[in-house]
Each structure stands twice: as structure tokens, then as C-alpha cells.
User: What shape does this take?
Amino acid sequence: TSVTSAKIQVNGVHLHYQQTGEGNHAVLLLPGMLGSGQTDFGPQLKSMNKKLFTIVAWDPRGYGQSIPPSRDFPPDFFERDAKDAVDLMQALKFKKFSLLGWSDGGITALIAAAKYPTLIHKLVVWGANASVTQEDVRIYNGIRDVSKWSEKVKKPLEEMYGHKYFAKTCEAWVDGISRFAEKSDGNICQELLPDIKCATFIIHGEKDPLVPRAHAEYIHKHIKGSR
Assistant: This one.
């Protein structure tokens, strides 16, 4: 039941991941903005059923211990993360696997499930959105300045990154994700949702301060058979 921590070269970068369990069902855990396997999924790495599952938690490029490179946000950063995530699991020799993603990791998981349908077994997403509205941009700008964050949320990230990288990357994220709102429909991956064929479970927090509930309802409506 111990957790292995290692790096593997994928798409020209060294991606850090943690792995535990020996079950037949492989699961990749995808963290949210600025998150890593350890900060976002410590409890899951510890407590998920290790007889049923083989659990992998990754640090997307520029996050956690997958630095260098520094994190950037080109227009296709979600697609890049989706390809990195799938290629990581293939490099680790998993033929088929499930995705559990939250926030940005949820968006990444939606794209991966749509683009690589033969590889994805099941999908669970929470706090995800398939588009960005002007209202969302207003909410994102409210978290741009990390000095205003609560101590509880801020502390683990500051310890991992140091204040400067943390502050700079958060600002870059706000700019990067806000760019989607410049498109007429604010689209991130709306057109991909009907391509998701695997069993999909959508979770949403009634009081989620960053992602209004309409986003979860939209995803549910456009992924056939999701619940």
C-alpha cells in the first residue's frame, strides 16, 4: 500500500506522478489549477481501495514537481494537458483507465475522454466547466491576487511553489482561462461533449464559489447517459 513517487519523460517534459495500489482498474487523478497529486489528492492516495484500483496522481507540466518547465497557458493548454495525461498513462503501460478530475483537471478529463474514447473506461468530473462566461471572468479576477486567499488554501501552495511562482502563475492562469470568454460562445470544449461515450458521473458543490452550477448542468445535458 506504499505510494511510489517518480518522474517519466512524456512529450519532451519530465512529468511527476505518484502511484499506489495493485487493482485491475487503473485510475488517473487530475488536479485543479496550480494543484498537484499530493496537494489535491492526498486522501485518495491514502484511502482509495488498493485491491480494486491502481491509482495514479499526476502533476501536470509546470505544476507540483513537474517543473521545469514553468507553467504557461497557450490557447490549447487544456488539450496539451489531456494529451500529456493520456500519454503518461500509456507510458506507464496502462491499456485502459478511468479519469477522476476536478476543476481544470475535470476539463482536461472531459477533453481526454472525448478525444481518446478507446482508452477511457469511466469518467468522474467535479467543479468543471465547458465554457467561460463574462460572469466567470469576473469571479476569476476575484482570485487573481493570491494575498487575498484564505490561509488554508494558500499555505500548501505557497510551501510547494514559493510565493513568487505561485502569485505569478495564478495571474497567468486567470489571463489564460479568461481568453476563452473572448470567443462568441466562450467555448472551451462544448463541441467535444457529445463524443464522450464512457460512463460519466458529474459532481458539483452547491456552494462552489468559482464554478456556477449551470456549468455542471450543461455538461450533464450534453454527455449522453451521464448522471
